[in-house]
Design brief:
Number of domains: 2
Shape: globular
CATH class of the largest domain: Mainly Alpha
Number of helices: 8
Number of strands: 0
Helix content: 55-70%
Radius of gyration: 19 Å
CATH architecture of the largest domain: Orthogonal Bundle
Structural class: mainly alpha
Distance between the termini: 50 Å
Strand content: under 5%
CATH topology of the largest domain: Arc Repressor Mutant, subunit A
Length: about 180
């Protein structure tokens, strides 16, 4: 961490750190998201996700920041926004097609989510980062403190295996997940 960084020893220190980062970085993130067609609420969501990712990384053992904390946090925010913006612009509904698909595959997402949660919070976060946020494995490795993309791939596989084991233990079939 750089020499201007607030040392985090207490909850109050962490609060001061977050306030300083909000004041220093959030306005730039909000401007960037606004220029890219996003809303203030989207900017807040992106920044909060970036702040959590940055803090988890900064709190991990062996983390050495090679740039300014504010620049690093802005970079994470910018990447998260680009991924979200890219995902949203690729979605083009076809007239009536979406409704037909939803009717055909009326899965109970609550049931699926409950089985995914059996893998634990860290696995849920990792799987969300890969499948929902579509983050590259190198970014996932950095966010979760893995040594590299290969380690992230192995951990993702282990998380999926936990879910598969739960499904197999309960002898579930595809029909069990239909609404």
């Amino acid at each position: 961490m750089n020499e201007n960084m607030i040392v985090v020893k207490t909850i109050e220190d962490r609060e001061k750190l977050f306030i300083a980062l909000y004041k220093g970085v959030f306005p730039a993130v909000a401007r960037h998201v606004s220029k890219m067609g996003g809303s203030f609420d989207e900017a807040k969501d992106i920044f909060q996700d970036a702040l959590v990712a940055w803090y988890e990384k900064a709190a991990s053992d062996g983390f050495v920041l090679r740039s300014d904390e504010q620049a690093y946090l802005f970079g994470i925010s910018k990447n998260l926004w680009l991924k979200k913006h890219k995902r949203n612009t690729q979605y083009v509904p076809l007239d009536g097609y979406d409704a037909e698909c939803e009717e055909e595959a009326a899965l109970s997402y609550g049931k699926i989510l409950s089985f995914l949660q059996t893998a634990g919070k860290k696995c849920m976060d990792l799987l969300r980062s890969f499948y929902y946020d579509e983050l590259p494995l190198n970014d996932i490795a950095e966010i979760f403190g893995f040594s590299g993309a290969r380690s992230a791939t192995v951990q993702k596989y282990k998380c999926l295996e936990k879910v598969r084991e739960t499904v197999e233990e309960r002898s579930l079939t595809y029909e069990d997940f239909l609404a």
